[in-house]
Amino acid sequence: MGFRDLYGEFQNLRAVILGVSPDGEASHRKFIDKNDLPFPLLSIYGWAPLSARLRSGTYTPWAGGLGGASLT
Question: Is residue 17 part of a domain?
Answer without folding.
Answer: yes
